[in-house]
Structures are given as C-alpha cells and as structure tokens.
Design a protein that fits this description.
The chain is of the alpha+beta class. It is built from 2 helices and 5 strands, in the order H-E-E-E-H-E-E. Bound molecules: guanosine-5'-monophosphate and zinc ion (ZN).
C-alpha cells in the first residue's frame, strides 16, 4: 500500500488520532496551519473529490457533519473553515480524499 493516509489509518504510520468510526478517521495535521488543524478522511481509499461518484455522496456528507461535530466539541464557536483541496493548482499533495478542519484564528478570504 503506497498511500500515506491509508497507512496512517492502518496504524503503520503514527498520527495523533482525534476520532475514528467504521468509515471515518480523523487526526491532527503534522504541519498545522491554524491552532486547530484536523484532517478527516474516509477509511476506504478515494483519491479525491474529482474521483468521487454519486454512491460516495452519503460518505462525503458524513465527513462534513463529523467536521461540524468536532468543531462544536472543540468550541470553535467563533468560526472555522473546511477545506478540500482538489488537484495540483489547489495544492492537493496527498491523493486520499481529506477535509481540513481549520480553526482557532480569523481566516482570510479569498484563500491564497
Ligand atoms: P493537501 O495539501 O493534500 O490538501 O493536504 C495534505 C495535508 O497532509 C497537509 O496539510 C500536510 O501537512 C498533511 N500531512 C502530510 N504528511 C502527513 C503525515 O505524515 N502525517 C500527518 N498527520 N499529516 C500529514
Ligand atoms: Zn489511501
């Protein structure tokens, strides 16, 4: 298996786990871009949003709802940002779909 996030999910590479259920895994980003920076990934390998299809819709919704739940738990009531980078121009560097949950500081718009 040569996917970094599949290896993290499998426990082959250590990560600071924040949440896990039967289909979602969440862990701290190794290079945080904000005081809170969590990555939420589906356990089943999916390269990215560009590769997602209609049967993935429920899973994509569940990832977003879990991000909102974690944000509530972490008291990010002043706001947070969910980022899903798609492809090289957006800076996607790991080709296993992941949501970034960023919070704990004001966010600029538009993003860089
Ligand atoms: P992307 O740029 O693909 O949207 O996001 C990939 C994210 O994965 C980056 O924010 C990067 O810091 C994070 N990352 C890369 N390698 C590792 C790792 O080995 N462990 C953890 N926890 N995060 C990683
Ligand atoms: Zn993977």
């Amino acid at each position: 298996m040569d996917c970094l996030f599949c290896r993290i999910i499998a426990g082959e590479i250590p990560a600071s786990k924040v949440y896990e259920d039967d289909r979602i895994f969440a862990f701290l980003d190794i290079q945080p871009g904000a005081p809170t920076h969590i990555l939420l990934v589906p356990k089943r390998h999916l390269a990215g949003l560009a590769e997602a299809t209609a049967p993935d819709a429920e899973l994509l919704g569940a990832l977003q709802l879990k991000a909102a739940e974690l944000a509530r738990t972490l008291h990010l009531e002043d706001g947070y940002r969910i980022v899903l980078n798609v492809g090289p121009d957006a800076g996607q560097s790991v080709f296993h779909l992941h949501l970034h949950l960023l919070g704990g500081r004001p966010m600029a718009w538009p993003p860089g």
